[in-house]
Amino acid sequence: MKTYYTYILQCSDGSFYVGMTSNLERRLQEHEFGVNEDAYTFNKRPVELKWFEEFSDVSQAIATEKQLKGWSRRKKIALIERDWENLVLYAKNYTQFGKDGASLSSD
Description:
The protein is α+β, with helices and mostly antiparallel strands. The protein is built from five helices and three strands. The protein has a three-stranded antiparallel β-sheet with strand order 2-1-3, with helices on both faces. A hairpin with a 5-residue loop joins strand 1 (4-10) and strand 2. The longest helix is centred in the middle third of the chain and has 12 residues, at 58-69. This is GIY-YIG nuclease family protein. Belongs to the UPF0213 family.
């Protein structure tokens, strides 16, 4: 059975990159070595793997990648940190927190 991975990298500028692959180790090396000059991560190296999930169904891996790409930065951080409470909170209160959580108060 083939395995697929959806993953989140943190780039040197602090941004996140979400991707999907069937060979996580090879793909991470490609990001790190800058194989593709047109890639988002090319000028943002080094990169660090922050999160990944394995799938046996390629369509599930692709769906998860698309879902994560639509998430706010704050929500991605909650996933990376396994902060399930805030992950749910940010999902339910999108208008309160905004796409990047800019309106989050310290209360």
